[in-house]
Amino acid sequence: MLGRWYELRVMTGITYLRLSVTEQCDMRCIYCSPQGIISRTRADELSLDEISRLLAAFAENGVSKIRLTGGEPLLREDIADIIRLAAETPGISTTAITTNGRRLVDLASDLRAAGLNAVNISIDSVDSSTYRHITGSDAFDSVIRGLDEALRAGFEKVKTNTVVMRGVNDSEVSRIAKLTINLPVEARFIELMPLGHAGRKWLSLYVSAGDIREMIGELEPVDCEAGASARLYRLPGAVGSIGIISPMSEHFCTGCSRVRLTSAGFLKPCLRMEEGIDIRRMLDQDDFSWRLGDILRETAHRKLHEGQPSAPVPTTAMSAIGG
After folding, report:
1. What pLDDT digit, counting tens, does each position of 47-64 carry?
2. Which residues contact residue 51 at a Cβ distance below 8 angstroms, ignoring those fewer than 6 apart?
């Protein structure tokens, strides 16, 4: 019995779960969830009880970090309860969230009190008109105030996410990077991936990590944890840092220890893999945790072989995968 437990806890190779809690979103970013997309209804979403059982099983199989995603996760009325569940699950050491930041002004302190450790805020532009073009929303001022509130709330880590697109926001890369000079944030710049509708115009918009580094200028490398998706840098004298995520030009597939679970309960090895395993239907089985361990070991093996940039391009929108 001890040998099987050790195998469950250690040998899956998966330590990080990105859990989508909804496909609903109050923005329509041009690379993620365009106008006209039909999201699953709230009735399709994993319930609080299902999430609780899933978190326990993943933790029993060695997952120690949870990131809540969407859609927009702060649209879930029970988001604080979900965070509390994750924070109180034995084995889970880090609970994080990725959000568009629109609701952080009102929710940041409550989320911190519930046990949230870290927050990533999508800020694809610091120009209000460009921001409106990218997101289809006039929420720029609210998002910036949300960033300020997140910093005041005392999260262990506050990061910004910027998907860089040629001719759209690439001229702002240096300006956004300079926010880290005085703010204790990690400004993350992410290569556009050819997912869903974005794949049709990917080549004309794509900016490589190398080009992003050139746009920023003088950068000092910073050590980062093993398996991290971002390569870390710092501008000279800056209090914050800069992360560059390069899934296309400098992929990190072989070191990846994360999986994704959609809001409907489908486990996906990678953003770029179309298929998924419906583990929601297994939840009521007495041996669910054991079976999940087997699935995660197989998933880890497949990630090493299939999660390369040459893999087929999914047609599913990122908002439906849990980006």
Report:
1. 999 999 999 999 999 999
2. 19, 21, 82, 85
Tell me which residue has tokens 């870390």: 232
Give all strands (DSSP E) within 217-285, no chain letters.
Answer: 220-222, 230-234, 241-245, 258-261, 266-268, 277-278
Query: Of how many residues is the chain composed?
Result: 323
Do the beta carbons of residue 87 and residue 95 sit within 8 Å?
Answer: yes
Domains of the chain by residue range: 2-321
The neighbouring-strand residues paired with 161 are 122, 188
Work out the number of other CB atoms within 10 angstroms of the CB of residue 301: 12
β-bridge pairing 266-268 and 277-278:
antiparallel
Nearest in space to 197 (alpha carbons), one of 311, 56, 108, 315: 315
Gap between the Cα atoms of 113 and 256, Å rounded: 30
Enter the pTM of the model. Answer: 0.89
SS3 at position 90: coil
Count of other CB atoms within 10 angstroms of residue 138: 11
**Fold of the CATH domain 2-321:** TIM Barrel (3.20.20)
285 DSSP 8-state letter: S
Measured distance CA(83)–CA(86) in Å, rounded: 5
- In the numeric block, the tokens 């000279």 are attached to 236
- Angle CA(304)–CA(273)–CA(256) in degrees, nearest 5? 35
Q: Which of 33-37, 114-118, 236-240, 305-309 has the lowest mean pLDDT?
A: 305-309
Q: How far apart are CA 139 and CA 144, in angstroms?
A: 9
pLDDT one-digit tens code per residue, 220-265: 999 877 667 889 999 999 999 999 999 888 766 667 789 999 999 9
CB 205 within 8 A of CB 192: yes
244's enclosing H/E stretch is: strand 241-245
User: Is pLDDT above 60 for 92?
Assistant: yes
